[in-house]
Amino acid sequence: MRGYLDSFFYTLGFFVRLLRGSLRLLSQGQAARNVLVMQILFTFVEALGLISLLAISIGTAVNVIGFPFLASISQGQLIYPLLIIIITRELGPLLVAFIVIARSATAIATEMAGMVVSHEVEAYISIGIDPIDYLAVPRFIGVTISVFMLNIFFNIFGLAGSFFVFQFFTPMPASVYFSDLLAHLNLRDLLLSMIKSIAFGMIISLVAITQGFGVERASTEIPVAGLRSVGAAYGWCISLGVLFSIVYYILIG
Questions:
Q1: Could you tell me how far CA 72 lies from the centroid of its own chain?
Q2: What is the mean pLDDT of residues 149-174?
Q3: What is the average pLDDT score of the chain?
């Protein structure tokens, strides 16, 4: 029990340290900003194609399967809140987080672990460079921004992009679809989706960085750090997603 508490308070302290370092990022020099840009390039830009395809596929599936059934019972208008619940409120942020975990959490954890094992982190310290400000903070901000932006694009492609694929199955005037969709899309759903994506981005980067920095000296610990970061990030994101949904439904009713 004591070990879990020590780990929790260490992670909490590290999180506060990352937040403080995030406020000073612009003053850290061009090198730290370059790390931030490269992290956004890897996490956001390179994953955008996969996210878009997944969003369009899920949105199309919901439309193709759900609309004919709901229309058959004279409840066709329910397809819009169904899409919003699945794409915007619940499944979208979580699926984006899962893809980022699979791509970026393992990469960050193994990269950080490799730097620790190869004494690169010690080299930074010896020349007066804070490894947290230079290595951890840009990745923390980069992953958080990337998850937030990927979630926005997931919503765009899932809600709007899937409509054009749906046209091949059941033609519908675009003005009717988008006006009804916007009528059912409210600010609460958008805020919950954005809050989830920001929280998931922070968790993914925090877990990956702490697992990477937590290795000792053996090179065999590097892949273990990657595996642990994936498992921990999945667990935390799922748990936090459920918690957010419970609080939302309790407050909104």
A1: 37
A2: 84
A3: 86
Range of the domain at 23: 2-252
Number of domains in the chain: 1
More confident residue, 124 or 144: 144
Nearest CA-CA partner of 159 in 71, 95, 94, 89:
89
Residue 63's alpha-carbon distances to 2, 175, 179, 183, in angstroms, are 50, 16, 16, 17
Structure tokens at 24: 């000073």
pLDDT tens string 13-38: 888 888 888 877 766 667 777 888 89
**pLDDT score of 238:** 94
In this structure, are residues 222 and 117 in contact, taking their beta carbons and an 8 Å threshold? yes
> Angle at the Cα of 200 (from 196 to 205), degrees rounded to 5?
155
Full 3-state SS string of 156-179: HHHHHHHHHHHCCCCCCCHHHHHH
d(CA 212, CA 110): 6
